[in-house]
Amino acid sequence: MTSNTSGISRRTLLKGLAASAAVPMAGCSPNPASPPLAAPYVPGKPLPWINWGKNHSCYPSQRLAPRNEQQLLQGLTQAKGTVRAVGSSHAFSALVPTDDTLLTTDYLSGLISHDPATLQAEVWGGTRLHSLGPLLESVGLATQNLPDMDYPSLAGAIATSTHGTGKHFGSLSTQVAGLTLATVDGQLLDVSAKQHPQIFNAARTHLGALGVVSRVRLQCQSAYRLTEVSQVEPLELMLSELEQRMAQNRHFEIFALPYSPLGISVATNEAKAADVNQGEEDPGALNQLRQVFESVSWLPGVGESLYAWLLDKAFGGNPPVVRTGPSYRVLAHARTTRFCEMEYSVPVEAGPECLRKVLDTIVRRKLPACFPIEYRHVKSDDIMLSMYQGRDSAVLSIHQFGDLDYRPFFAEIEPIFHQYEGRPHWGKIHTLQAPQLAALYPKHWQDFLAIRESLDPNGKLLNTHLKQVLGV
User: Which part of the chain is the FAD-binding PCMH-type domain (predicted)?
Assistant: First the structure.
């Protein structure tokens, strides 16, 4: 297979949008309000912690970086006040902030062991996903699926059921065959479907509320390669063929473009033996996209329709962009443009209607949105607080550039998800509190709270955000 790099892929499009974020245009003008500010350095106060999106921060009085499980247990038992674990700081919700003790698992990283017979691998919980792929490849293994960005730690990704896309694939948490949980009373609990199965079922989406995950045993498969094909297409065509495309491709997703009838289809399948590893993209497409944005920035009233027309002329006829390589390189994509994100999962059958309503609301309300809306499918599971518990789900991800205030935009869109029994991603921005969340998890909500109470009766792991969303 040969790669045509004259087209525009989702990576190219996202980078182009980032380059144009400061250009006023219809539907994407900077909001006059300032975005939430991260904590500055203040003389006399501890160094601030700031998340990647720069929408949350804190001044932890103590920072711990244990180098082994014994130090991890010591830190958990001896620390005063609230203890929160932190991975790569890519959560957009306030799961991490505490002014007491911040504990990083960065030193608990790497491959511990693997079993070629069962295709399982035990990995330290602090291992970043971008390191996980090469580590597993070195022993002939690979994850069955991955999120589309590989910055988080493994334990952090499991904490919030971080996911990729694919009709037959659940979140990363569904690939966990067992894990070790360090508890606040000084225990190392090995949990699996056979050992402490209830705790295991809770710990696969643990929110950092049960303990600190030190080790993870993953069910893998033999290492494999993938080929990704990205193409600009009419959005309605993709939605009309959605079920077929989800069934025919190992992974499939859509990026819908606000104020345009176009979207980007991304179909990913196992590579053929003859496919050559490749994937370089033409940076010239960035300039084309920026020119489209700038060309309509000064035209009031007709900017939206002209923007859609120009976007179609610039990119609608481009051939596909093809990337081939090891699975972990193809599934993950660079996220170098800072943004804030809200994500909801709705029943899979409601996905297309929900997406259409979001796009229609953006146009009718003239909301400041030009970041593509990501649309994916995730297979159901029975993990206690997984967003996909009990139902196959369509996942819609809404973004806003980091230098703009996301709050007015998200406030207009979030109620749409509530109409479809949407469950918010635990690591993304949302406004739901415990009563609304409990109603979305009728099967296991009380079970999770009971397990949390048994493992941390004094709430040592609970910060303000967790107390609010769990109702503790």
Answer: 56-223
